[in-house]
Amino acid sequence: MKKSRLWGGLAIGLVLTLVIAGCGSKSSGDGQTIVIGSQGSDVQIWKHIAESQAAKDAKLNIEVKEINGGVILNNATKEGEVDVNAFQSWAYLVSYNKDSNANLVAVATTYLEPMGIYSGKFKSIDEVVDGGTVALADNPANTARGLSLLQAAGLIKLKDDFNLGTGTVNDIVDNPKNLNFKLIDDTTGPRVIQDVDLVLIGNTIAMEGGLNVLKDSLFHEEISVDTKNSINVLVTTSDKQNDPGILKLGELYHSEDTQKYIDENFDGTKVPVEKPISYLEQ
User: Fold this and answer.
1) What is the pLDDT of residues 157-171, one digit of tens each?
2) Which is nearest to 246 in space by CA: 17, 68, 27?
3) Per-residue model confidence as pLDDT tens digits over 234-273
4) Which parts of the chain fold into alpha helices (H)?
5) What 3-state class would DSSP assign to 267?
6) Which domains are assigned to the chain?
């Protein structure tokens, strides 16, 4: 009877061990496997990192999973379909956590990809006409980001306490050109350039539409304290935020090899930012 109980206890222990081992990123004799979810041009970058010698030296088997849609990507991370994701700004993460009652965590900064103001009608901001229509992304983080950029360009003035993560057009206190605002699916930005006077487009989407923010926009973001909410981050769940393999991803992104690859393929539009997460939280 005692022997039977002993074997039963060992069997239960073995099952628990297997369950625990199956959670999160996986380790083996060949190294740790980490699944990273991404979209757009970031998929290309992470595939390069996955195949790099630096990843092999770190004993990381990086599997890149392309998932289109910010909310879908964050949900996949929350539910453990991927271990970490690479696509979003700090403001987008904060907004998602608030709206979804989630607790995803940023573990490293990667880059600032400037948002730009584009037009098919004007060659400069000074030419913008009275009563013009401006298209803004319809998700909270990018709506606020676009409004902040319009203020930086001198087209509007926002409340002093404007929230860079959740602010809306209702926070405009001065609109000297009487601009009209239209919310759009931000992925359609390049397609509506000819239909509106101005459109705010993030650079990943702009590049997919054949636009270069540094060359084709009328005005674009610059790195400063005012744009720190737009810095992109690597994101995971709170229980994985101290995983050594996941933390290593930030180092791999900022390695000399990766940055050389990005410079050669993205014309300087992904400006590297290597800051502690505490910088974003201030």
Assistant:
1) 999 999 877 899 999
2) 27
3) 999 999 999 999 999 999 999 999 999 999 998 888 999 9
4) 2-21, 41-50, 53-57, 70-78, 90-100, 140-152, 203-208, 213-216, 244-253, 256-266, 277-281
5) coil
6) 29-113+229-281 (3.40.190.10), 116-221 (3.40.190.10)
